[in-house]
Design goal:
Blueprint (H helix, E strand, L loop, with lengths): L15 H7 L1 H28 L17 H8 L1 H22 L1 H10 L4 H12 L6 H11 L6 H8 L16 H7 L7 H12 L3 H9 L4 H12 L1 H17 L2 H6 L11 H10 L4 H25 L9
Helix pairs in contact: 2-16, 3-16, 4-13, 5-10, 10-13, 13-16, 15-16
Amino acid sequence: MASDVRPIPRSRQRSLWGEIWAGRVSYLFILPALLSVLIFMVEPTFSGFYYAFTDWNPGFQEVHFVGLDNFAALFQDATLGTGVRNVLEIVVATVLKNLTVPLLVAELIFHLRSPRLQYWLRTLFVVPMVMPAIAVILLWIQIYDPNIGLLNQLLGGIGLQSWQHAWLGDPLTALPAIIFVGFPWVHVLPFLILLGGLMSIPQELYDAATVDGARASARFLLIDLPLLLGQIKLLVVLSVIEGFQGFYNILVMTGGGPFTSTIVPALEMYFAAFQDSKYGYACAIAFALFLVILLITIVNMTYLKSGVEYEA
């Protein structure tokens, strides 16, 4: 039996330019945003890739191509090597913080029986988002103060004077103290992403699990986790990017010290560019960070796959 579907006559087929012309008003409204992205985001990105292979130094008009010299210097920089070890610890800690406590809180709120209580608790945990990040960092600097800080005062009050410490002034405790900032780590964005994933799971699955007599732990392992792997993949990528690129908290709290105990590659890049005026070397560090983050993202998206998929 011949198919009734007939090809569209060529005269009725629109070319690409015809489609653009038909939606010219919509494209006209999009154009300012597109130009802004190209000028302020795309162009600086590719410029940075180019300058990573040069000796670019502001104040000198001539820019010379130096090939891989900047990248060779990366492997000879002992400070950068220390920063790589530090940032790996920070990345692992960031992934764990964004996947553990926010998931636990999301599970507890999602399984509450009272919708009104769920609403108010969701609102309560989202409120800290309005607090500027720099204010939180300054607060934690006061908490870690060796003389009047809350942490040392609390230790002294419970008879643990021997535990009192200059937390940000000791190379052994400075990095752990920075990682500990934000405790109990109920970060808003991971919490909302995981809670949204739980809310998208069909209720029929939970009803079937209840009929089968499944316990809460079984529902978590067999229903929640498999269907949250999409959100978990996203949070892993965001956490890796945050861990590798973040440095403002370290800059404010320790400046990379004491000595180089809290230095990270992104902070080294900042110092190279704005203190030493080695913009070519700074671009090389940025390019190396880009490649590492891209590789980790590809591996994460390739090998972390859900065994159960659901489409609403």
